[in-house]
Design goal:
Blueprint (H helix, E strand, L loop, with lengths): L17 H10 L7 H10 L3 H8 L2 H8 L7 H16 L5 H10 L7 H16 L7 H12 L3 H9 L1 H21 L4 H24 L14 H18 L5 H18 L6 H9 L10 H6 L10 H14 L8 H19 L5 H22 L4 H7 L4 H13 L5 H21 L14 H12 L5 H14 L1 H7 L3 H7 L7 H22 L5 H19 L2 H18 L3 H13 L10 H15 L7 H4 L5 H8 L4 H12 L10 H14 L5 H31 L14 H21 L7 H17 L19 H9 L6 H13 L2 H4 L4 H14 L5 H14 L5 H5 L15 H30 L1 H7 L3 H12 L9 H26 L17 H11 L22 H7 L7 E4 L5 E4 L1 H25 L15 H17 L3 H20 L3 H4 L1 H14 L16 H10 L8 H14 L8 H16 L11 H11 L5 H19 L14 E2 H7 L3 H15 L13 H9 L1 E2 L15 H8 L5 H11 L8 H10 L11 H21 L5 H15 L3 H4 L7 H19 L9
Helix pairs in contact: 1-2, 1-5, 2-3, 3-6, 5-7, 7-9, 8-9, 8-11, 10-11, 10-12, 11-13, 12-13, 13-16, 14-17, 16-17, 16-18, 17-18, 18-21, 19-21, 20-21, 21-23, 23-24, 23-26, 25-27, 26-27, 26-28, 27-28, 27-30, 28-30, 29-30, 30-33, 33-35, 34-36, 35-36, 35-37, 37-39, 39-42, 41-42, 42-46, 44-45, ...
Length: 1479
């Protein structure tokens, strides 16, 4: 709600060369009134904004000079300088546009001279030979073509030179880009230059009229040669998959545009492009120049991306309006869409999928243009019943649930355009569109959409398009309760935006429809009944989530559409509130009333003054809401008081009283969400107070006492301001009272957050700005001490809030005057930093960060530092004091840490018990994070500190790494290294060492006698070693050290070292060259840090250690990928290659951990790949996935399963990483194959890793599970959508399913459980049928059916159940009755002597699921379908003997199932109109 300050415009000042400056000085007149004087004053300014004012005076001055008639030499020279100024400015400088706009108004008599000047200066630019200056020249050409008449004339004069320059620059930049392969920073810049050059070439051809006659020129002309050269370049770019796809896309536009400009006759262009798309070019019938330029496109092996971008260029660059291209254009249009359909089944890369969806949407737009004046044959090909439209609909249905938002949006555009195409194909106008509601295609479409489940997100957008097209009346006729149905699904957060948008479309359409037909205002009653009544029911009776989402999304849109409906809602809710006040679990009518009023006021539909809306709700009702049992009612009531659509609205006295009343009872809320909402709403209130106070100050200053009651307040401004001060002071007092010692975490969190908001909203006054309240005025010594005591809280959030609040206060409030107290606090912080309690070091970190801001800190530090620091000068004291103090604190911590590491090297047990090392490192990291390390003043002092910090970190890591890298870190206690215990340490280490390898994959490890030891003897020699070790701490106290204490010390130390190293790499400036004066980290140090992370990620076994080492390593890799140093930039790629080679060569003796899910190896590779720039080609990801997929596949060599285990574990981590986004999706099918095949491995470790990978892939494919119901359709997709997204899985799953079915219940009677059956059925069971499943897909579901039926014979009950569920999506709707009859016919007859119970039960389960799907979805309501179900019931009756036969108790479930099937069949039949009512 706060007013954002308008960002000041930053304009770089223009400059000119010395020669031009001298010219201006020589031409300037004494009076300073000529153009040279104006320009001289302008260029002497250093402020770009001020220069704009002078630039705008150029044309008015020249208009006065125009009266003299002739253009004198002085003006000619000035125009030449202006041309130079224009071309010297950067393309994004506002001065460039201002200058162009001004010169567009140049008097006519100066135009010739000005054009000559621009032509001359532009020619100089075009003659440049510096490759890295080409971009500036290209930008200038582009600027000249953009709404700048002089520039366009200059380019037109130099057309031949411009074309030659573009050709030369693109060739040289492309070659330079090839040379820098691997250096993605340089390549990114060069590729951007290529993209700009291509775009400028397209712009040139589009805007220069001479290209219309280019075909008349001879092939020997320079212009033609340059055009052919550029066309060859763009063809090469279009086919080069190593370039950015945006370059390929733009090149596709350029190729078609150049063909359009150069090819003759133009009538043959559609046929030529059709042959390119169909790969049927006749080389004998095309010109030689075209074959020479576009030979790559005439081949039959054109890549998918090339064809895709050719289609895009054709749709964009050719004129589709009014059927200008005739029948050949219509044929081209159809060829394009068929090419796109083919590509849609072949493209897997997400970015190309997105391009395809946009191009398909563009195709539908072009089709609409063509249909407006097309031939009857095209209309037949593009009406709703045509195969093309059906395939477009199929594309929509299979992609409307796609993970990419942009792609889902394109499906909506395609669907909307399909409706428009159908209208045009039927010859209807826009006004006749609603009449198409009776059209068979539209009716079937509407019914199909309504039959879909409401969890399908694409349904909402398509229904919205349909409502816009035919009106809401037809939809309500088919489903009268659709408003209630949509509101019911609004408890699901993922569906809420879609549902609310559809409801808005519907009720707005309904309102306009009713108003257009009504003669009086009674129409509003019907509208209220349809849209408002279901809303009120949900507000009163719905579940919590449903109410919240309806209030947040639906209610504001409803009130915006019909503000007058508020009184209707309030009237009904007021009546109900007396009877239904609500409870702890229910909001009741009172909660609904407060929610409606809050929403109305926040959106400006309720008069904001208290006396205006108190008529709607009484004061008692407000207080009742503020202390209601239900937390959301309290929040809504508070929101009613705090929120307003006007930020300057004055807060009334009554509102302030209610706020104080609310604070008294609600600070201690146990719900984090409620606390956050309370603090947010109060911050909005404070913003209102601050901003309305500014208005009140202005009113007070104007002394407008004689004016009547103004619109803001009925009392004098000074009275309102004093009330504000009293209210804020009283509120702060209550908040500080709540911070008493021992107060609960929720109370402290709320109080500190609110106080922080107050300090932020009411800043320290600067200049003439007045602030109605300042928190610092109400903070005395006691309250300051209260805030300091918050650092002792065990909750880190409380420490953060207290620290941030102290940092927001003026320095005069938080500065210590007593040096003894400051020294005491510093001593306490140092003591806490070595505490054995982990949260104490967090307290020490925040306390030290606070003390760093104390000016008097150095005098307290000198006693703790061995190396004395020189005093700082009086320079920029505010900036340098913090840096100096930070440096001294880190030095002090570092010296203590160095001593403790030396002791830990002798006795790790003593360190774990008395001075865990991680606390000091944590404090150092915290101090560094608070300092701006890119703008250091004391660089020379920082360098030795950083170097020492790295050395100590490595020493510390070396001390604790034996524990972390042990194969069993949880139980290891390394003994002291003195002579007395050395033998025991060696015994333990030798016991651990053999298990540090991967030998367990091939054979069991048997300990040798010389490696064994007697635990009793060990305990006898060292008492308590079995449970703990006794040592003497720093204070000579006896301490017990458990294995857990040692482990916590070690892994936390590793964690802090990793975070420290990551922070150093992320924040410290790097030395690009050894002699650099501003860098703190050298290249060698960065490489050492990388080697450190590699060692510990690949060798650590403790999850806490390598997970947090991964966090630090990610920071390093992100820096390396942005580093201009080539050797550092290539490090991630080198590390990746090395670790992949190490994984491939893993054997039982490898040190890589193959247990613990490969420990840190997946994290290491994940960090290297996730930091790869997402806008590039992701070459590292592609290379890695190819290697891993190969390794994860089955192998014949059982001894080499370690690489397979590693590959499966790494793949699992990569598929789980959300940062890889859609880039990982093309590998999902291969990953699923590896997981399913790995499940058949005889090695347990491979099966285990395959199971984990498969679980991850299920989540990646079907989404995160959002409910407890395993059968919920929220995490499922239709069969057609699944196989269209992963077509490679179709033959694989079919083949695997056949193999599984062949092993189920063999004829020999042996039990044969195929290991892959569960996984296959689990995948197939996640699919569900859809009435939208089309018949145009080449991936038919029919081949799966017999194999799934056979899987239903499995001896495992769970497998039979899953097979029954998996069968449903593979049976077409019309085939359900036939399939059921086939299944029932397979049941044994009463005369059969031998049959199996599992076969019978599995068949009955499949029949049950098919009938249930038929009943739930209500697919067909015709007589034929009812007759089919009647036949099913007859067939079922013939098998009822199975339910009567008892066979040793095995038939109980079967008998119940058989009767249930018959009942279900009859129910399905009778659920339709016209069905029998009696059985």
């Amino acid at each position: 709600m706060g007013i954002k300050k308008k960002k000041e415009m930053q304009v770089t000042a223009l400059t000119i060369c010395h020669q031009d400056l001298e010219t201006l000085r020589s031409l300037a007149d004494v009076e300073g009134k000529n153009l040279a004087s104006l320009l001289l004053r302008c260029v002497q300014l250093t402020d770009g904004v001020s220069q704009i004012r002078y630039v705008k005076q150029i044309v008015p001055l020249l208009e006065k000079a125009d009266k003299n008639g002739a253009c004198d030499p002085a003006i000619r020279s000035c125009l030449d300088i202006l041309a130079g100024i224009y071309l010297s400015l950067s393309v994004k400088n506002p001065l460039k546009k201002v200058l162009a706009s001004s010169l567009n108004g140049l008097p006519e008599c100066f135009l010739t001279e000005a054009i000559q000047s621009f032509t001359s200066r532009l020619q100089e630019e075009l003659n440049t030979t510096d490759l890295y200056a080409y971009r500036k020249v290209t930008d200038n050409i582009s600027s000249c073509m953009e709404n700048f008449d002089l520039g366009k004339a200059g380019v037109n004069n130099l057309l031949k030179n411009v074309l030659h320059f573009l050709q030369k620059s693109l060739i040289e930049i492309s070659e330079e880009n090839r040379k820098f392969a691997g250096n993605h920073i340089v390549q990114t810049q060069l590729m951007n230059d290529l993209l700009v050059g291509t775009r400028v070439s397209v712009m040139l051809v589009q805007k220069i009229q001479d290209f219309q006659r280019i075909h008349l020129k001879t092939s020997s002309s320079p212009t033609w040669q340059s055009m052919c050269g550029l066309l060859s370049i763009f063809t090469k770019f279009l086919s080069d998959d190593d370039l950015l796809q945006t370059i390929q896309s733009t090149s596709g536009l350029a190729v078609i545009l150049f063909i359009k400009a150069m090819f003759h006759p133009p009538e043959k262009i559609p046929d030529l492009i059709s042959s390119l798309l169909l790969r049927s070019v006749d080389c004998t019938s095309i010109p030689d120049w075209f074959l020479n330029c576009c030979r790559r496109l005439c081949c039959t092996d054109v890549s998918h991306s090339t064809l895709l971008f050719l289609c895009q260029g054709t749709l964009t660059m050719l004129d589709w309006q009014n059927g200008n291209m005739g029948l050949s254009g219509e044929a081209l249009l159809l060829n394009i869409v068929h090419a796109l359909f083919t590509l849609s089944s072949q493209i897997k890369e997400s970015t190309l999928e997105l391009f395809l969806s946009r191009i398909l949407a563009s195709w539908t737009n072009s089709a609409i243009h063509v249909l407006e004046s097309s031939s009857p044959s095209l209309k037949d090909n593009l009406n709703g019943n045509s195969s093309i439209v059906q395939r477009l609909l199929e594309y929509v249905y299979t992609h409307w649930e796609h993970p990419l938002d942009a792609l889902r949006h394109q499906t909506k555009i395609i669907f909307r355009n399909i409706l428009q195409m159908h209208r045009l194909a039927k010859g209807k106008s826009d006004s006749e569109a609603p009449g198409l509601a009776a059209d068979r295609f539209i009716c079937d479409l509407a019914e199909s959409l309504l039959r879909l489940e409401w969890h399908v997100k694409g349904k909402y957008a398509c229904l919205g398009c349909l409502v816009d097209y035919i009106g809401i009346g037809h939809i309500l006729a088919l489903a009268k309760t659709i408003p209630s149905q949509i509101l019911e699904v609004m408890g699901d957060q993922s569906l809420v935006p879609y549902a609310s948008d559809l409801l808005e479309t519907m009720f707005r359409n309904h309102k306009s429809h009713l108003k257009s037909q009504a003669v009086d205002s009674t129409w509003i009653d019907e509208w209220h009944e349809t849209w408002v009544s279901p809303l009120l029911f949900i507000l009163c009776e719905g579940n919590l989530d449903q109410k919240s989402y309806v209030i947040d999304y639906y209610l504001p849109k409803l009130l915006n559409c019909s503000p007058e409906s508020l009184s209707y809602m309030v009237k009904i809710l007021q009546t109900s509130a007396d009877a239904k006040t609500g409870s702890y679990n229910s909001r009741g009518a009172l909660g609904a009333l407060m929610a409606c009023l809050r929403t109305a006021r926040a959106h400006g539909h309720l008069q904001s003054a208290t006396d205006a809306w108190r008529n709607l709700v009484s004061s008692a009702r407000i207080k009742q809401g503020l202390i209601h049992q239900h937390c959301q009612v309290r929040i809504d009531t508070l929101g009613l008081l705090c929120e307003s659509n006007r930020s300057t609205e004055v807060v009334s006295t009554e509102e302030m009283q209610w706020i104080q009343f609310f604070i008294t009872y609600n600070l201690n809320s146990q719900s984090p969400g409620v606390r956050q909402q309370i603090c947010s709403l109060l911050k909005k209130l404070f913003c209102r107070i601050q901003e309305s106070s500014q208005v009140l100050y202005k009113l007070e200053q104007s002394r407008a006492k004689h004016e009547p009651e103004n619109e803001l307040t009925k009392q004098h401004p000074s009275v309102s301001l004093q009330q504000y001060k009293n209210f804020m002071s009283s509120l702060c007092s209550r908040l500080f009272e709540a911070l008493f010692p021992g107060s609960s975490y929720p109370t402290r969190f709320s109080a500190l957050t609110i106080l922080g908001s107050i300090a932020e909203v009411f800043p320290i006054p600067e200049g003439q700005v007045q602030t109605v309240y300042q928190l610092s005025h109400d903070i005395d010594v006691g309250r300051f001490q209260t805030l300091m005591e918050c650092f002792t809280s065990t909750f880190e959030e409380v420490k953060i809030l207290a620290f941030d609040l102290l940092m927001k206060l003026p320095k005069t409030v938080v500065q210590f005057q007593d040096s003894e107290k400051l020294r005491g606090l510093f001593e306490a912080a140092l003591e806490l930093s070595s505490s054995t309690k982990p949260y104490d070091c967090v307290t020490a970190s925040y306390l030290l960060n606070f003390l760093i801001w104390q000016d008097a800190l150095p005098s307290s530090l000198f006693a703790y530092l061995k190396t004395q620091q020189a005093a700082c000068g009086d320079g920029d004291k505010s900036a340098i004091v913090v840096e100096r103090n930070t440096l001294m604190v880190i030095q002090c911590l570092l010296e203590n840490l160095e001593e403790e590491v030396a002791q830990a090297e002798n006795s790790l047990l003593q360190a774990a018990a008395s001075f865990p090392l991680y606390g000091r490192v944590h404090c150092i990291t915290g101090a560094l994070q608070r300092l701006s390390l890119n703008n250091l003043r004391l660089v020379s002092e920082w360098r030795p500190v950083v170097e020492k910090l790295l050395l100590i970190s490595y020493r510390l890591s070396a001390v604790v790494s034996p524990v972390i890298q042990s194969s069993s870190p949880e139980g290891l206690i390394p003994m002291d290294t003195d002579s007395e215990s050395a033998s025991r340490l060696q015994t333990i280490l030798s016991e651990i060492q053999p298990r540090d390898t991967n030998d367990y994959f091939t054979q069991a490890k048997i300990l040798k006698k010389r490696d064994s030891f007697d635990l009793e003897d060990l305990n006898a020699s060292v008492p308590n070693i079995g449970a703990s070790a006794e040592i003497e701490g720093k204070e000579r106290k006896t301490c017990d050290v458990t294995a857990q204490m040692v482990l916590v010390c070690c892994w936390r130390s590793m964690k802090e070292v990793a975070l420290l190293l990551g922070t150093l790499c992320q924040l410290l400036p790097m030395q690009s060259v050894p002699e650099s004066s501003n860098g703190l980290l050298t290249v060698e140090q960065v490489k050492e840090i990388g080697d450190y992370f590699k060692q510990h990620l690949l060798q650590s076994r403790h999850r806490g250690a390598f997970e947090l080492a991964y966090t630090g390593f990610v920071k390093l890799t992100e820096i390396l990928n942005r580093c201009p140093n080539v050797s550092l930039q290539k490090l991630p790629e080198q590390w990746l290659w090395n670790v992949l080679e190490e994984v491939k060569c893993s054997d039982p003796s490898s040190k890589l951990c193959a247990t613990r899910r490969s420990a840190g190896i997946p994290f290491y590779i994940q960090a290297l790949l996730a930091s790869e720039p997402k806008k590039g080609k992701m070459d590292l990801l592609k290379m890695t996935m190819k290697e891993l997929i190969t390794l994860a596949g089955p192998t014949d060599d059982s001894k080499s399963t370690v690489p397979q285990v590693h590959a499966l574990n790494i793949l699992r981590a990569l598929f789980r990483d959300t940062r890889l986004g859609e880039n990982i999706i093309p590998y999902v099918a291969d990953g699923a194959k590896a997981a399913i095949l790995g499940f058949t491995s005889p090695v347990w470790a491979v099966r285990n890793s395959s199971t984990l990978l498969f679980s991850t892939l299920i989540t990646r494919i079907f989404g995160v599970k959002r409910g407890k119901d395993e059968l919920s359709k929220k995490n499922r997709m239709t069969g057609s959508e699944f196989f269209s997204r992963f077509p490679e899985l179709y033959p694989f799953l079919l083949q695997q399913l056949e193999a599984v079915a062949n092993t189920v219940d063999s004829d020999t009677g042996e039990l044969n459980r195929h290991p892959s059956m569960f996984l296959l059925l689990l995948v197939l069971g996640r699919l569900y049928p859809s009435p939208m499943d089309g018949t145009y897909s080449a991936l038919s579901m029919a081949p799966f059916i017999p194999f799934i039926m056979r899987c239903g014979r499995s001896p495992v009950y769970r497998s039979r159940e899953m097979a029954a569920r998996a069968l449903v999506p593979f049976v077409m709707v019309d085939e359900i009755p036939t399939t059921i009859r086939t299944l029932v016919a397979k049941l044994p007859n009463c005369t059969d002597q031998c049959f199996r119970q599992n076969h019978i039960h599995g068949t009955l389960l499949q029949v049950s699921h098919l009938l249930q799907a038929c009943t739930d979805s209500k697919y067909r309501l015709n007589t034929y379908f009812q007759q089919e179900l009647a036949d099913v019931a007859v067939c079922t009756r013939a098998k009822l003997w199975l339910a009567e036969r008892l066979h040793a108790g095995l038939c109980v479930r079967r008998r119940k199932g058989c009767k249930d099937r018959e009942k279900l069949a009859l129910t399905s039949r009778n659920s339709y109109p016209g069905g029998e009512k009696d059985v």
